[in-house]
Structures are given as C-alpha cells and as structure tokens.
Amino acid sequence: MGEPAEAVPAWEYASDVHVGFVGLDGVRRDGPLARYWGEPFELASPSRKFITFKGQKNFTGDYWAAISRDLVGYESWVERDAAMALDFDPAVVALASQPFRLAWADDGRDREHTPDYFARLSDGTGVVVDVRPESLVDEEAAEVFAFTARVCAMVGWQFRRVGDLGQPFRANLRWLARYRHPRCHRASVAALLREVFVEPQLLFAGADRVGDRMAVLPVLYHLLWRHELTADLVSGPLGGRTVVSLAARGWS
C-alpha cells in the first residue's frame, strides 16, 4: 500500500505506539505501529479471545458478514448492530473484529486498547471502529478513544466511535440483514424487479407486478441490502407502503 502523505511526519511518534496482532500466517507479531500500519488488518484474526461465562450481562457471538462471507465476532448486541451496519455500507469491502491491540505509555503508566473493528473501504482507506454507547463513555474511555483517533490520523486511517443505531434504521437493517445471503438472489426475479422499480413505487405493489409476493419479497429485500434498489430506511419502518426505486448504481 502507498504511504499517506499526512502520515510521514508522524513516524517518530507512531514508533512509540506498539501494535500486537495475528498475521495472515497465524503468527502473533508485536512492534511499532509505524512498521506495521500497512498490514491488511481487515483480514486479521481476532487479537484476543471472546470471553463467555455463566451469568455475563453482554451477549457474544459471530455475525456472518456478506462482504467477506466470513464470521465477524461481537461482544454485545450493540457491537453486532455496528458490524451489520458496516456490512451494509457499500463503501466497506472487508471487515475484521478485534484486529489488533495498541499499547503505549502515558505519564509512566502502560496502557493498551483493542479496537472493536477494522474496516477497509473501496478506496483503500483503513477505518478503526470502536463501539460504545454515549452513556457508557466515561472519562477514561473518552481519553482512550481520543488517543486512538490521534494515532489513526497519524497513519492515515479514519477513526469512528459508534453507539446505538437509531430507530427505525436499526429495525430496518436487522430485517434486511435476514436476506443478505446470496441464496436470496434469483437472477430472473432480480432482473424483473430492476425493470419494475425504474419508476419509484410502493414496495408491495412493485413486488406483485413481478409475481407471487411471497416468492418475490426475499429477492427484493436482498436487492435493497445490496443497494441495487433503494428506499428510505431512516424515517419510518420498512413496509408494504415504503417507496422503492432503482438505485443509481448497485453493487457488483
């Protein structure tokens, strides 16, 4: 990968920040971020284990990401929704959970932080994502996130701190995610749906024009997930009277 121009003056500073990760060969590595920032962290294995124990209040699991056709771990419903939103984002082409551990010294105190996700955008940009609802961001967490954001800027990455997805987008996204798998795609039905929704119209009405509604809807929802069809997912719940139209440009 090329070297971001804005990162060059930061090498000396970035050398003081260490990154630990599991490489593509399965070998654990640790060294200056200035050395390893170009690694494909979007393909990395989790740098630490997802802990589960009896009575824990958070929910851990694996989310199947359509962009990579692989499992992405999460440690809460909020993290699961964040992974889902990244998977839905047409600019994201790859995604990994717990990609690396950052370590640094702060006034003589050793500190470390493992971001929740690392995403790669279609233009090659790396994105570090931390998931924490605003109500749970205390002073120490805010300091860690601010430091992580500065480090990301110095090596040419974006940093995002995300919390709960707003409703009704969260409900709509969860619904469409049920149809993200390629098995929901039927080429002949998809072609007809693209023709029908050249002119914006109601979701159920357009589905009925193509064929049996129950057979057509899974394909329609799959095309919405792929951004080949588009609808307002923010203002209200997705339903039969939602206006759907052909997107200007869908995914390949």
Give the arrangement of secondary structure elements.
Elements: H1 11-14, E1 18-22, E2 28-32, H2 33-36, E3 61-65, E4 70-74, H3 77-88, E5 92-97, E6 101-106, E7 109-113, E8 117-121, E9 126-131, H4 139-154, E10 158-162, H5 169-177, H6 187-196, E11 201-202, H7 203-210, H8 213-225, E12 229-231, E13 243-246
Pfam families: Tn7_TnsA-like_N
InterPro entries: TnsA-like, TnsA_N
Domain TnsA endonuclease N-terminal: 89-160
Notes on the structure:
With 252 residues, the chain is of the alpha+beta class. The protein has two domains: 5-162, Trna Endonuclease, Chain: A, domain 1 (3-Layer(aba) Sandwich), CATH 3.40.1350; 169-246, Arc Repressor Mutant, subunit A, CATH 1.10.10. 30% of the residues lie in helices and 25% in strands. The chain is built from eight helices and 13 strands. The protein has helices at residues 11-14, 33-36, 77-88, 139-154, 169-177, 187-196, 203-210, 213-225; strands at 18-22, 28-32, 61-65, 70-74, 92-97, 101-106, 109-113, 117-121, 126-131, 158-162, 201-202, 229-231, 243-246. A four-stranded antiparallel beta sheet has the order 2-1-6-7. A four-stranded mixed beta sheet has the order 5-8-9-10, sandwiched between helices. The longest helix is centred in the middle third of the chain and has 16 residues, at 139-154. The chain is elongated, with a radius of gyration of 21 Å. Residues 89-160 form the TnsA endonuclease N-terminal domain. InterPro entries: TnsA-like (IPR048000), TnsA_N (IPR014833).
